[in-house]
């Protein structure tokens, strides 16, 4: 199989890259954290491209670490948000006004004070630049004084709170007001309020250093170094050699990390929903067979998820709902009106072929369906080096061959994959649906299924990459914004609409709920999240969750 054939070369390449990094970063020792530096690997395959614009889909880092939100929301546990740049907030009775009190001791790393003007500027900026508005924010903000902001909404907007407060990164007005196109401008020298700031940048690695003037005190963790390697196998090799301290991704024999990697521990949390993303909406410019819902449903039923879990994910993944709510965390809100509460774990080839034939496809002599003289053939993009996803893609392509669908996996760089995803210039790609700032299925739906967060093909969508635009979903999302989030009885009918429409449209073809696993150096650093103390979702690429973890970590004595 491909991965076995390439394994030795990939590992050798990864170790060679690490050897070069040791020299590039100014030392002969490659021991992780040897100087108190936390060395992390996010899965970056290929060189880093310098860009710290936190609103860019190709931003390499910044949200949470350099640029802060107003509050930190724990999206695993239902707990009160922790203040960051904000101190307190209140809603009026009908949810049309949000008043925020800010810190008075925060400064940008160039020494200027952080004020309410920066908050208003940031919020106004994203309303003028749709590609930056990943939360669908529609408020009108006013600075009452230097530490108070009032945001008014045209309609009740309770659900906007965690998104505005926890998922919008504050930027300095005195720096960003001069950017001509802030949605796409490259930020090379970031100025933020966060606990870290840029230390040095090289294409193979960049380093953040503790902010000595951080309002909460300089972090105990002094440096974080981000490596670029050649993929998961290189990451695993580096972990085995003790050359990285934290990565989120698969390793062989994942259940025995402590035995196989002395000094390291692992934690697995089911949060992100692995899916085949489809550019689904022909009205917005999507092209290809995947714009036909019958094809998307045939793929959905043609996947043997049990086999994918075994071969690609070491059985660490779990079932997934076709309505996109998390089965474990959101169990009370999973709609009873779904045709299937969970996606089938076994392929149903008869159902898949019946869907295709009902939509006018006929099978050719080569066993592949065709329509209007065109074979049912699709290209599926995957990031080179993401070995678990590569295995999943190859496994599914073989499975779908049996139902007359030809899938051609295409390994590309992360930058190419990310650009294609953002612009809708793909047929299929593999990725995961991330969760919102609070433990509520509303946010996942508002991100990936709202007309407000998508765009025409060629323009940047953020993050409705499938180009979903459905009046019923939009209406239900709008209604949920005006309902107190504690009123379950009033909310559920709208969740029923959203989930049943998602199941019907299947723009992101559900694979499995990924068991997101992180391996971390417990010998050299203390303060890591545990299942008993999940103060933040423990994934190195999760933003701003990773910044909360950085703030908790301390070098072990």
From TrEMBL:
<dbReference type="InterPro" id="IPR000914">
    <property type="entry name" value="SBP_5_dom"/>
</dbReference>
<feature type="signal peptide">
    <location>
        <begin position="1"/>
        <end position="24"/>
    </location>
</feature>
<feature type="domain" description="Solute-binding protein family 5">
    <location>
        <begin position="80"/>
        <end position="452"/>
    </location>
</feature>
<dbReference type="Pfam" id="PF00496">
    <property type="entry name" value="SBP_bac_5"/>
</dbReference>
<dbReference type="InterPro" id="IPR030678">
    <property type="entry name" value="Peptide/Ni-bd"/>
</dbReference>
<protein>
    <submittedName>
        <fullName>ABC transporter substrate-binding protein</fullName>
    </submittedName>
</protein>
<dbReference type="InterPro" id="IPR039424">
    <property type="entry name" value="SBP_5"/>
</dbReference>
<keyword id="KW-0732">Signal</keyword>
């Amino acid at each position: 199989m491909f991965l076995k054939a390439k394994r030795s070369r990939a590992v050798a390449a990864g170790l060679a890259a690490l050897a070069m990094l040791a020299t590039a970063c100014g030392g002969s020792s490659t021991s992780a954290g040897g100087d108190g530096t936390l060395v992390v690997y996010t899965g970056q395959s290929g060189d880093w491209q310098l860009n710290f614009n936190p609103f860019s889909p190709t931003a390499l880092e910044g949200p949470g670490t350099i640029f802060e939100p107003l509050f930190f929301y724990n999206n695993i546990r239902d707990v009160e948000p922790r203040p960051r740049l904000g101190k307190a907030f209140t809603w009026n009775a009908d949810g049309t006004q949000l008043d925020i009190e800010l810190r008075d001791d925060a400064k940008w790393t160039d020494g200027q004070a952080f004020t309410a003007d920066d908050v208003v500027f940031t919020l106004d900026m994203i309303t003028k630049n749709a590609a930056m508005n990943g939360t669908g924010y529609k408020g009108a903000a006013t600075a009452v004084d230097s530490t108070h902001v009032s945001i008014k909404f045209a309609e009740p907007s309770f659900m906007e709170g965690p998104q505005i407060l926890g998922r919008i990164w504050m930027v300095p007005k005195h720096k960003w007001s001069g950017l001509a196109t802030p949605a796409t401008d490259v930020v090379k020298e970031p100025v933020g309020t966060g606990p870290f700031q840029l230390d040095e940048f090289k294409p193979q690695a960049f380093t953040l250093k503790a902010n000595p003037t951080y309002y909460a005190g300089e972090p105990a963790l002094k440096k974080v170094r981000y490596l670029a390697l050649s993929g998961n196998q290189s990451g695993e090799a580096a972990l085995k050699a003790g050359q990285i301290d934290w990565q989120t991704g698969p390793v062989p024999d994942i259940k025995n990390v402590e035995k196989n990697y002395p000094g390291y521990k692992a934690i697995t949390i089911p949060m992100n929903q692995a899916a085949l993303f489809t550019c689904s909406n022909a009205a917005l410019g999507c092209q290809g067979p995947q714009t036909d819902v019958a094809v998307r449903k045939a793929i959905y039923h043609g996947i043997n998820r049990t086999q994918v879990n075994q071969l690609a994910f070491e059985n660490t993944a779990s079932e997934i709902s076709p309505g996109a709510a998390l089965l474990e965390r959101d169990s009370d809100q999973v709609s009873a009106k779904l045709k299937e509460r969970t996606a089938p774990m076994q392929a149903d080839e008869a159902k898949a072929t019946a869907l295709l034939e009902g939509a006018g496809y006929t099978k050719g002599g080569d066993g592949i369906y065709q329509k209007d003289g065109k074979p049912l053939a699709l290209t599926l993009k995957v990031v080179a080096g993401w070995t678990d996803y590569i295995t999943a893609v190859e496994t599914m392509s073989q499975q779908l061959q049996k139902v007359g669908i030809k899938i051609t996996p295409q390994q590309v760089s992360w930058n190419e994959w990310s650009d294609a995803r953002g612009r809708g210039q793909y047929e299929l790609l593999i990725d995961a649906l991330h969760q919102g700032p609070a433990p509520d299925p509303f946010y996942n739906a508002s991100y990936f299924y709202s007309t407000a967060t998508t765009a025409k093909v060629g323009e940047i969508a953020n993050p409705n990459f499938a180009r979903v635009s459905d009046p019923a979903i939009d209406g239900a999302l709008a209604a949920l914004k005006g309902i107190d989030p504690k009123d379950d009885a009033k909310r559920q009918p709208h969740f029923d609409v959203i989930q049943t429409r998602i199941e019907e449209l299947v723009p992101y073809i559900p694979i499995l709920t990924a068991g997101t696993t992180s391996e971390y150096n417990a010998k050299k650093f203390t303060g890591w999240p545990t299942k008993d103390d999940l103060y933040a979702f423990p994934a190195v690429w999760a933003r701003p969750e990773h910044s909360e973890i950085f703030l908790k970590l301390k070098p072990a004595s």
